[in-house]
Each structure stands twice: as structure tokens, then as C-alpha cells.
Amino acid sequence: MIDLKPIVISGKEVLPLIEGGKGINASNGFSSGAWAKENCVGTFSAVSPDFYDENGNPAAQTIHSKNRVERHEEMVQYAIKGGIAQAQVAHEISNGNGRIHMNMLWELADSERILENVLEKTKGLIHGVTCGAGLPYRLGELASKFGVYYYPIVSSARAFQILWKRAYSKFTEFLGGVVYEDPWLAGGHNGLSNAENPNEPQKPYNRLVELRQVLNKFNLSNIPIIIAGGVWNLDEWKDYINNPEIGKVAFQFGTRPMITKESPVSQAWQKVMMQVKKGDVILQKFSPTGFFSSAIKNSFLEKLINRKNGEVPFSKELDDTYTYPLKINDSKTVYIKSEDAEKANNQINAGFTSIQETPDATLVFITPEEAKQMKIDRANCVGCLSQCQFSSWSKADGSTGKLPDPRSYCIHKTLFDVGHNGSVKDNLLFAGHHVYRFATDPLYQKGVPSVKELIATILTGK
């Protein structure tokens, strides 16, 4: 057994084991309630969560409006309704044990309004809120208003220092902890800064020590650091437990809980994860958020990779550099470099005849079928992000003012599809970089474990 002592999280002494929140529909009230029942911390996702009909089945979240602003409002109301429903489910299943947290994507459009409405209607059901994908400046203010603890997700000491100085120093009472999420190992969106090389991962130890030093400087030595990203078993983290350089810690498990009996993840998705090999998860920047993200390499990502590799710069005017004329539609001709002519023509001859401009003065080549689907996806945009590179939607202004980026995709559509329909073949499959370990982990060779069995195994260190 690992020497893992209970600590106070969100106002109650619990085991320092936390289920990572994953949306859309990869962690919900059923999974988080099961974690809390074992006197741990369960986390449901507030990103397009399900709510239920009179028969207890997930209700259809059909968008009816034709206007994008009105579609966005429908999405927001569904999210509020779903967040309340998941909190109620988690609370019931927990039987009053552990803690229930809600995870919010800060870059979700109207995330503040969703968070405020859910917390207002779930008093006593939600004990903490974790939030990342951006710098959630108002998280402390919003959570404190309802007496709920808050946990910013950061990938560096510098990020927390910015949040503290700008906002959190005014709301210290309910700062429950800081989630350090390893930007090279975590699944989903990653917090790599422009100063960090995505191809040169850094060991977490020194980054955690630096974060603790910053916390100590602000008299936050008693605040736990929640280690996330790359956490599979605790034997590998013995040096981080009861370590005075790092201080009080808890561990967040994101990928490993995805294959449990209580997980909402479909059997088809779980089957894919059981077959992943080391290196199959890649860190890339195709997300319409503009952030790096980690996902399983499949046909969905391969199309985006090939599209990016086929990209060529262009100019609207003929000059000494851009000399080769290329007709991109019936009424428009642009110019590319002569050395790129073969690359462009090879793609056109292979059937990628729809030529799309990007916001960076480059061209990409896609099939007419892909172009048609892209047009449909943009027309159906529900405004899920505060700013979307794929559709050019902006919550603040209606539009980013930039061209829609054909090197990206509709994130709401693909995550909703894989999360609800089990359509894993040609959809985005977010996953942590240790997902390949499912294939050799003895726990999963016996079948799908329950959350109770998983936590019991984690406590042995294995």
C-alpha cells in the first residue's frame, strides 16, 4: 500500500484521489458519484452535459434556431440544465461521501453564465469547480459567491502567479487547490505557452517545486497541488508524496477512469483505447480553440495532418516570389511559388479539387465532399467557444473578423458524436499519452473494473 493520507479537499477530509473532468460526456454524474462514494473526489464535465427525459434516458439536445446567436442561447440553456442534472445524479450516487466537483472549460462561450446558473441551482450538491483552457480570472469570484471551492488548472507557476495577482488574491477563502496539468502528457487541451517547445517535454518535478515556491510566497503553503496529466499508478509518484519541496499533494486520474463500469464512455471507444500503442497519441494544434491538444491518431487526425502538410503559401498579386498562377475558383486566381506548383497540382489530380484559403495567407486542398460538409458544419455552428477558428464565431462580436480556418474542425459536433453515438472511426478521440497502458495493465485484462475496484488498485500503488 502507498502511504497516502487523507487531506482536506473542498472542506472535507477525503482520500487525495480525484477523477479528472472530461467533456463532452466522458465524465458525468454516474462516474463522479461513484468516485465520491469511495471517499474520493468525483468530477463531472459541465461542457454540454446530458439531462434526462421522464424515462431516465438522455434527452435529445436538438438545436432548432436558424440564427447563430439564438442557437448559442439554446446550447447555453441545455448546458445549464445538464449541469444541474449531473450534479443531482452525482449527489445521489455518492450517498453523502467524498466530494463532487464540476469541471468547466473557460474558453466555452458563456462559461461564466453557465457556471453561475448551475451553482445557484445546486447549492450543497457541488463542492468544488475546476477550470482550465484559458486563464479563468473570474473563477474565484464566481465560486466564492456561492461558497464553493475553486481549483484553477495551470501548467506552470507563471500562469498561477498571473491569476493570483490579477484576481485570486481577493478571493483566498475558497481557493481549494491548484491543479498542475502536465502539458506534454495530459489528454484534451494542453496549456503549452509560446515559450515552451511541444517536442521537448520537461519533467514535472522541477515545475511542481517552482509552483510550490510561488504558493509559499503568497502564504498558500497549506493549499494542495493536484498533480494531473500522466498519472497512471502511484508507485511512479512515491517521490512526490510527503515531499517537503512539493508539499501537500493530491492526484488526478483522467484517462484510467474512462474504462470502468460507471464510465459513460461507449464500449466502442473503450475498445479503441485498449488497442492503442505507445506513440499513438499525438500533441497537435488543430483545435479551433487555438490551444494544443492531445488525441489518438486516427483517420480524423490523419486527414488534418495531410491537409496541413499539403499547405502552400500564396499571394493575391503576381510578384518576383509568387509567379505561378493558380485558379482557386471560377472567379479568382492567385499566385503561388513555382516550387510549390507540383505539390499543388498533385493534390488537385488526387481529387482534392476544392482549394480553401486560410487566415494565414496559405491554401489547403480538400475534396468537394469535405468542402460541402465543412459548409454544413459552419452553418450549424452553435457558438460553443468564446472564439472559434473553424467557424469564425466570436461571443463578443459575433465574428472574429478572420477567415474560417479549413485546417480545423467543429469541435462540438465531433465530441458530441463520439460521446453519444460511439462513432469512433472518424471523430476526435481525446486521450492522455499513457492510454497505451490499458493494453498491458493487469487490472483491465480481467474485464472492465468498477470504480471501487480501480480505486482499490490505485491505493496499492499499482
Task: Pick out its properties.
TIM Barrel; five-stranded antiparallel beta sheet; 2 domains; 462 residues; alpha/beta; globular; single chain
Q: Enter the CATH topology name of the largest domain.
A: TIM Barrel
Give me the side-by-side strand order of the main sheet.
3-11-10-8-7-6-5-4
- Classify the beta-strand content into a percent band: 15-25%
Spans of at least 5 consecutive residues whose pLDDT stays below 50 are: none
Number of strands: 18
Shape: globular
Through-space gap between termini: 9 Å
CATH architect. name of the largest domain: Alpha-Beta Barrel
Mean pLDDT, as a whole number? 95
Rg of Cα set: 23 Å
Main sheet characteristics: 8 strands, parallel
Total DSSP helices: 13
Range of helix content: 25-40%
How many discrete structural domains?
Answer: 2
Descriptive notes:
Helices cover 31% and strands 18% of the residues. It has 462 residues and is α/β, with parallel strands linked by helices. The protein folds into two domains: 7-284 and 435-460, Alpha-Beta Barrel (TIM Barrel), CATH 3.20.20.70; 312-406, no CATH class.
Question: Summed up, what is this model?
Answer:
The chain has 462 residues and is an alpha/beta fold.
How are the SSEs ordered, and which strands pair?
Layout: E1 7-9, E2 12-14, E3 17-19, H1 29-37, E4 41-45, H2 68-94, E5 99-105, H3 111-120, E6 128-132, H4 139-145, E7 149-154, H5 157-166, E8 178-181, E9 188-190, H6 204-217, E10 225-228, E11 249-253, H7 267-275, E12 281-284, E13 292-296, H8 299-309, E14 312-315, E15 324-329, E16 332-336, H9 341-349, E17 354-357, E18 362-366, H10 368-379, H11 411-421, H12 442-445, H13 451-460
Parallel strand pairs: 3-11, 4-5, 5-6, 6-7, 7-8, 8-10, 10-11
Antiparallel strand pairs: 1-2, 9-13, 12-13, 14-16, 14-18, 15-16, 17-18
Helix pairs in contact: 1-2, 2-3, 5-6
